[in-house]
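RETRY 2/3 - previous attempt timed out on the joint model. Re-submitting the same 740-residue input unchanged.
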Amino acid sequence: MNPIIQLNNATKIFRKSHLGRVKLAIGIQDLTLDVKKGEVFGLLGLNGAGKTTTIKLLLGLLFPTRGQVTVAGQTMPDLSVLRQIGYLPEAAYINKYLTGREAVNIFAKLSKVPSKIRKKAVGDILEKVGMSQNADKRIGEYSKGMVQRISMAQALIHNPDILIMDEPITGLDPLAILEVRQLILWLKSQGKTVFLSSHNISEVEKVCDRIAILTGGRLAMISESREWAGAEGKLEKIFTTTAQRTESIGSLKFS
Amino acid sequence: MKKIFRQNMGLFLSLCLFAGVLVSNHRVQKLYTLPFPHFDALQVKHTGIQDISFILFGFRGLAADVAWIQLLQYVGGPGIFDEQSPNKFDLVKDLTLRVTRMDPYYTQAYIFGASLLAWIKVINRPQEALDILKEGLEYNPRYWPLHLFAAGIIYKQKNQLEKMFEQLKIAVTQPDCPVVVKAMVARSSADEGKIEDSIAIWRIILADPKAWNYHSKARTEISKLEKRLR
Amino acid sequence: MDGLLAVIYYTVKEHIRNRVFLSFLLFCGILIGSALVISTLAMDQQLRMILNVGQAGIEFISLMAVIFITVNLVLTEMETRSIYLVLSHPIERWQYILGRYLGTLLALFAAMILMSGFHLLILFLKGWVWNNSYLISLLASMAKIGVIGSLALFLSLSTTSSASAMSFTGFLWVLGHFSSELQFMAEKSANPLMKAALWTVQQIAPNFSYYNYRDFWQAIQTPPPAWFGWMSLYTVCYIGTALLLSSWLFSRREF
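RETRY 2/3 succeeded.
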């Protein structure tokens, strides 16, 4: 099966200059990986490993310094591909002055949902994410969980083939985590491709078909679910032996 | 090459549009010159920073209004009708020109300043009054009351008071003649013994609802002048 | 087109529901109201003063609002990361810039019309007689706000902080009112280098004095009809240049 997402020696180097001094920082380096259609793919790594950089490259928010990023056969950044992508960020960054319904309607317009079906589609998706009763309140009045639901709605409103989720369960309560898990499994059952980043290993092992572990912007390993399925704590062990801190902080020494 | 062009299309298009800016700016300047004196003509001796700041922020009219209020405050102090006053109000011309050089179309300011200079005894500088009116006429040649006041001042200089008062009578019956000028002319008429003319002007003031702040003064003056007539 | 309209729509909603925006309106109302008190000092020039204070107040408040809002228009979305969600949808970057700019102008123009309505009410109560020049002055003031808004947007994308963008915009506002003096100085200058420098600055800086129709509508010679046409073209070209440059900068920006 042809990969729907491909990173080919993708490298992103950030250049920061301050008072004429230029500092280079590696986001990701020579990252090569494929994600197949219909697969749930997890990107694991510690803070600063390059997960968010990879996701931003997939969305065209960052441009690769070297190498190539391809989504649905198109080299990113490419606007036409974005119609097939739904993006669920770590924290839902939605304009607080809008109501939930207005926000989802705007994202439907941005995603080019035809005007004839837009109103119904917005109503349906708000119903599906359990927000139809609160849809006409301003987002500024919502709880974190409610904002996350609106964020889910905007990611799904245009029925995308690919879902990209950046740390989708960070900061959520256990019930909300369960709901996100259900959503991912439902998407998989619908034949959608899910690409998610996380450092919550126990959740990843419940939903992912394959994972990649990033360390210092480099691909450390790729592992398939058969390698950890049924063996509790196996993925955690794989992860802890593979991942290395790249930030200049030492480990805690309380043992 | 094609890729570079595509990536920088915004830059190329903006350069094209900027050519439009230059052409249209040239045409705008050719077709119309802003009808204001340049900064070097402004009366900046006392209040330069205030005036220039207002103009540079785009509020020329408001700057002239503030200067107008300051002119009124300057002449509004005690002594202007007191012939023994030590204050000779030397700054009236400068302060009037300060207003009118910021807003050369402030016709009432020319009339007010010139009237003060010409008909207030303690000031009595008819030549300066004419200078102000001359400048006013350069910018407002069609505003005939300026011609009228100028004629009145010239008659005064030639000591042809009858003719001067004839001119002033026409001027003060105009609805846009400043009430303060009407009051000045009324006083001047009384001083020259033209009591009936003075009463008539005070009555014009009394009949003008917009001159409400002069009504009390007008009533007092009318009663005083009527006693003099008896 | 749907994308552009969606951005315009949410920008307008964002502004009219923003307390800062509403406080600008309130402040202008107070300013116009206070003109009633201040103008009594002008004796029988009270009407003229109410007219001038009102028009200047509306423009000043709009200037403050356009600088503050436009400089932060994209920067705030970048800080709150809500821009990630918008740009992860299939919308061209120029559409985003144009939509944000037009949405802001629409909200501001609506506010200017509202403030002018209040101003006219006070003028009529004081016995003012309608003059078409008021309308032309208002339109000219709106055009000026449009030009300075486009420059503020461009500067917010090309400088490093919102404070510097606001300062530069304020400087351009002042320079724009000085440009006819610059032309005069260039004509008078004997030094060819100085002449060239002054001429260049005068050509590049926006010529804001020409938008102050309220200052010269009483002049013996008012501008011919063709002048208004050229002024309109000048305004469109200036705004277009600033917006194209903003879009170009924005299209190269990574998030």
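The first strand of chain A starts at residue 3 and ends at 18. Closing ticket.
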